[in-house]
């Protein structure tokens, strides 16, 4: 099945130009075009539940809409806003296939790893430039590293992250990810980003992090 490039271009225009891309995305989710490949990867998020403790906003789709709106507020700080906005939209694309209930808790282990491959499949359906696709997939792959690095978890991979993506972009996306929920504490989340940058060895030298110093 041939991917709808016109819909892709329209979606990208709203991601890049709208103050609240979620409004367009919510409308798109109700249209039959959203059931075509590869947009079905996003559609599956609507029915994918999340832990009510960590995500009181509800489904993965609800969370993604909040993250995209947060990303729209700060995309001017990104070194590549186009890559950044697509990464915000696709960052949890791996959750529908990894979400399970374990011991009464909703989990989505490895959704970052699975999501990297699904994001590549999604974007490759539109014959995009490989450099752009790789950059988006790198952010999707490493967007959970903030949690892992700050908490000293065994999943932390600072070396791989430094080799394969831009840590400052991971931090910016991660901040949007943390703020894209209904129970966030901005002061706490900004401190987590600060600690992540320091522990990753990147530091706060980039001018975008003036508010964290």
From TrEMBL:
Pfam families: HD (PF01966). GO terms for molecular function: nucleotide binding. This is HDIG domain-containing protein. Residues 60-144 form the HD domain. PANTHER family: CC-ADDING TRNA NUCLEOTIDYLTRANSFERASE, MULTIFUNCTIONAL CCA PROTEIN. Keywords: Nucleotide-binding.
């Amino acid at each position: 099945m041939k991917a709808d490039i016109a819909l892709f271009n329209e979606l990208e225009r709203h991601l890049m130009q709208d103050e609240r891309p979620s409004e367009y995305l919510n409308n798109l989710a109700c249209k039959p075009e959203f059931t075509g490949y590869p947009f079905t990867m996003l559609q599956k998020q609507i029915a994918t539940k999340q832990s009510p403790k960590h995500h009181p906003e509800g489904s993965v789709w609800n969370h993604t809409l909040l993250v995209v709106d947060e990303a729209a507020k700060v995309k001017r700080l990104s070194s590549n806003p186009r890559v950044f906005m697509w990464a915000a939209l696709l960052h949890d694309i791996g959750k529908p296939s990894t979400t399970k209930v374990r011991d009464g808790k909703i989990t989505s282990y490895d959704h970052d790893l699975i999501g990297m491959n699904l994001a590549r499949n999604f974007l490759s359906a539109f014959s995009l430039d490989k450099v752009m696709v790789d950059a988006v997939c790198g952010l999707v792959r490493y967007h959970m590293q903030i949690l892992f690095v700050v908490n000293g978890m065994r999943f932390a991979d600072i070396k791989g992250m430094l080799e394969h993506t831009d840590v400052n972009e991971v931090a910016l996306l991660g901040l949007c990810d943390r703020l894209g929920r209904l129970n966030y504490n901005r002061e706490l989340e900004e401190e987590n980003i600060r600690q992540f940058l320091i522990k990753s060895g990147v530091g706060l030298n980039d001018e975008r992090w003036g508010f964290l110093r």
